[in-house]
């Protein structure tokens, strides 16, 4: 949960490139943030000093997606498809996702959010930005609102919740990660730049492990190191990501909280630990991606008319092929059939691939609320 309070500015259009970069790296940074939280909150010297633990993220087929840099992860990154694991360990138990339960609890939590403000920007089933400048209950304090929301979530769902309170989205995100799993952190106006200056660069939202490695090679370890670089230097080394980094290093984020966002597509992709080329491997991988993407489609309650297959070859060239139907796809079987047909059209491949993805687009638009105008005022953070 992020509680963001912003002063009303003239309407700005968020930079899509920044949003894309941040979202793109969310999955990669997830394990690093989890590992950091484990190490920071553990009472064991084995964990804190020896880093004798690992955080690894797998997909539903048992393939490793990302891992942290701990010792345990380095010796535990061998992966295998679930069918192979079951054959080697017949008593293995797989726990299936229960998205109906997750969705129900998520709706409970969002109802709590909207009890306090209509400006709620969901990020996932259990995470959202809130702009509480329009204080529906007249509480008058963003910090108090965050405390009340955490109490309500615990009372109604028996779940803990962490909250970050600040005056923009970037700082609220950083603050919400500061005192997990059940804490509250406030970054007040005037404190953002100083807070960010001491922050390890790997804690920056959108900076993944590879990005952190690159920055370390360039002598950037903290937000202060990043703030010492000018925009021209950042552009030379980080391209379009430079604008975001320049502002973030100074605690600046101009993106508003958007309570309604027009979704243009739903999709997913997988990068492989080794290059794939055989038809059998590609078909098996496609089935895994179909399952994962359709779960996302159901979760988003999306219906669309275009299915796109994306492939990245070993030379990093990207190839895509799409099929569009007249009526929105409502069944997994139809989605899967179109995806399989797209793959068959391109087999055999001219060279191995390292990534495969599927996307459903040309979505049916659902009516959404527009953000109401707000007065030029800021609620107290105290």
Task: Kindly describe this structure.
With 382 residues, this protein is of the alpha/beta class. It folds into two domains: 2-186, Alpha-Beta Plaits (2-Layer Sandwich); 265-363, Dna Ligase, domain 1, CATH 3.30.1490. It has 14 helices and eleven strands. The protein has helices spanning 16-41, 45-48, 71-74, 82-88, 99-116, 142-157, 169-176, 192-197, 209-217, 223-227, 231-238, 242-248, 279-300, 332-346; strands at residues 2-4, 56-58, 64-67, 120-124, 127-131, 163-166, 184-186, 265-276, 304-313, 318-329, 353-363. A five-stranded mixed β-sheet has the order 4-5-1-6-7. A four-stranded antiparallel β-sheet has the order 8-11-9-10. A two-stranded antiparallel sheet has the order 2-3. α5 (99-116) packs antiparallel against α6, α11 (231-238) packs across α12 (242-248) and α13 runs antiparallel to α14 (332-346).
Summarize the structure.
With 382 residues, the protein is α/β, with parallel strands linked by helices. It is built from 14 helices and eleven strands. The model is unreliable at 6-18, 45-50, 69-79 and 367-378 (pLDDT under 50).
Features:
alpha/beta; four-stranded antiparallel beta sheet; five-stranded mixed beta sheet; 382 residues; Dna Ligase, domain 1; 14 helices; 41% helix; Alpha-Beta Plaits
Write the layout of secondary structure elements.
Layout: E1 2-4, H1 16-41, H2 45-48, E2 56-58, E3 64-67, H3 71-74, H4 82-88, H5 99-116, E4 120-124, E5 127-131, H6 142-157, E6 163-166, H7 169-176, E7 184-186, H8 192-197, H9 209-217, H10 223-227, H11 231-238, H12 242-248, E8 265-276, H13 279-300, E9 304-313, E10 318-329, H14 332-346, E11 353-363
Parallel strand pairs: 1-5, 1-6, 6-7
Antiparallel strand pairs: 2-3, 4-5, 8-11, 9-10, 9-11
Helix pairs in contact: 5-6, 11-12, 13-14
């Amino acid at each position: 949960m992020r509680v963001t309070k912003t002063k009303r500015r003239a309407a700005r259009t968020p930079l899509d490139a920044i949003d894309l970069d941040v979202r793109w790296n969310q999955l990669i940074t997830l394990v690093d943030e989890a590992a950091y939280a484990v190490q920071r909150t553990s009472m064991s010297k084995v964990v804190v000093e020896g880093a004798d633990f690992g955080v690894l993220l797998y997909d539903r087929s048992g393939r490793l997606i990302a891992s942290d840099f701990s010792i345990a992860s380095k010796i535990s990154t061998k992966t295998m498809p679930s069918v192979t694991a079951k054959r080697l360990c017949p008593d293995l138990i797989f726990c299936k996702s229960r998205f109906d339960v997750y969705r129900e609890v998520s709706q409970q939590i969002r109802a709590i959010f909207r009890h306090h403000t209509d400006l709620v920007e969901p990020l996932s089933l259990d995470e959202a930005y809130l702009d509480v400048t329009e204080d529906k209950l007249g509480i008058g304090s963003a910090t108090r609102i965050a405390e009340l929301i955490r109490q309500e979530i615990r009372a109604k769902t028996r779940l803990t919740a962490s909250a970050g309170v600040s005056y923009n989205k970037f700082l609220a995100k950083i603050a919400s990660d500061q005192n997990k799993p059940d804490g509250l952190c406030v970054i007040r106006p005037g404190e953002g730049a100083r807070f960010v200056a001491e922050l390890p660069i790997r804690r920056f939202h959108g900076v993944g492990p590879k990005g952190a490695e690159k920055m370390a090679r360039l002598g950037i370890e903290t937000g202060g190191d990043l703030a010492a670089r000018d925009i021209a230097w950042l552009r030379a080394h980080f391209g379009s990501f430079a604008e975001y980094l320049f502002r973030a290093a100074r605690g600046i984020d101009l993106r508003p909280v958007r309570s309604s966002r027009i979704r243009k597509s739903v999709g997913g992709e997988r990068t492989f630990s080794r290059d794939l080329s055989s038809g059998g491997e590609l078909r098996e991988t496609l089935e895994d991606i179909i399952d994962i993407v359709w779960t996302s489609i159901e979760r988003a309650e999306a219906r669309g008319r275009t299915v796109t297959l994306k492939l990245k070859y070993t030379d990093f060239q990207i190839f895509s092929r799409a099929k569009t139907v007249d009526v929105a796809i409502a069944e997994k079987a139809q989605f899967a059939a179109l995806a399989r047909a797209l793959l068959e059209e391109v087999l055999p491949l001219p060279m191995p691939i390292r990534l495969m993805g599927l996307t459903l687009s040309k979505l049916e638009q659902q009516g959404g609320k527009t953000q109401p105008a707000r007065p030029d005022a800021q609620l107290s953070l105290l």
